[in-house]
Design a protein that fits this description.
With 191 residues, the protein is α+β, with helices and mostly antiparallel strands. It has a single domain, classed as Orthogonal Bundle (hpI Integrase, Chain A). It has nine helices and six strands; from the N terminus they run H-H-E-E-E-E-H-E-E-H-H-H-H-H-H.
Amino acid sequence: MVYVSVWTGLRVSELAALKWGDVHEDSLTIDERYCRGDWGAPKSEASNATIGADLEVIERIHRLQELTVTVRAGRAKRKYRVVKSSKPDDLVFQSVRKGAPMRDNNMLSRHIKPAARAVKLDFVNWRCLRTSRATWMVEAGANPKDVQGQMRHSRISTTMDIYASSFLNRRGEPWTKLARWSSAGRRQCSN
């Protein structure tokens, strides 16, 4: 779930509501969200979309169908299939015991925060994963409109001012790239 979040920029409520019918060969469809017992439409009209997804993300999602985990129950250990059923209307990310929707706060407190503390990160939440995705896309040179589309924001200002702001505030490399581009353009014009 964390991997898919980082590589797609999906909100945790969208991850929790992702169904097998929403997983395509090279994309994911976001048409529903689930948050702490409530089902609903995506956050905005722009959020209700199909986004591209890397082949590795799609493969990793499909590997969940074969995955089994061992859970300690007192002194006993029980094995559970991670995916109880993978029909089009079944959830991709299911609770281990019942196949019910996963609770975002359980994942955060049981897995994400302890992992963050282990690598000495002060604060991590689900939004940090989403923000990181946008920032990394900008740092990799993605067109801001493409980043906006991946993040499914209604306005590009949301993407660039809030989600990718750490990149824009850095010194050095963006300006170096701009200077190289500018000088290359001047050389072509003078020829």
